[in-house]
Write a structure and sequence with these properties.
Layout (H helix, E strand, L loop, with lengths): L1 E2 L5 E2 L5 H13 L17 H14 L9 H13 L4 H5 L1
Antiparallel strand pairs: 1-2
């Protein structure tokens, strides 16, 4: 669960491709309790994820600073372009 608009809790359903990817991670790393881990096997911190994403944006030469909240918006655009209901995406 995460914070949605207006501070309300939100849930994000996992569809087939996401579930398959998570199952693959579980098969590859059966002893890890975390999906995002550091090189040392510890859980990745939010700060580390922000830095990693910012570096990926710099490497891609997108011309703007990239931050995690942009993933939320890009996912919304992708779902809308795939024909998902706009109100359902907003909710």
């Amino acid at each position: 669960m995460c914070a949605a608009a207006n501070g309300l809790p939100g849930t994000h359903p996992l569809r087939g491709p996401e579930l398959r990817a998570l199952r693959e991670v579980l098969r590859e790393y059966p002893d890890s309790a975390y999906v995002f881990i550091s090189e040392r096997g510890a859980p990745m911190t939010a700060a580390t994820f922000r830095k990693l994403l910012a570096r990926a944006g710099d490497t891609a030469k997108l011309g703007m600073p990239i931050h995690p909240h942009m993933l939320r918006h890009s996912t919304g655009f992708k779902l809308a372009n795939d024909g998902q209901d706009t109100r359902a995406i907003q909710h």
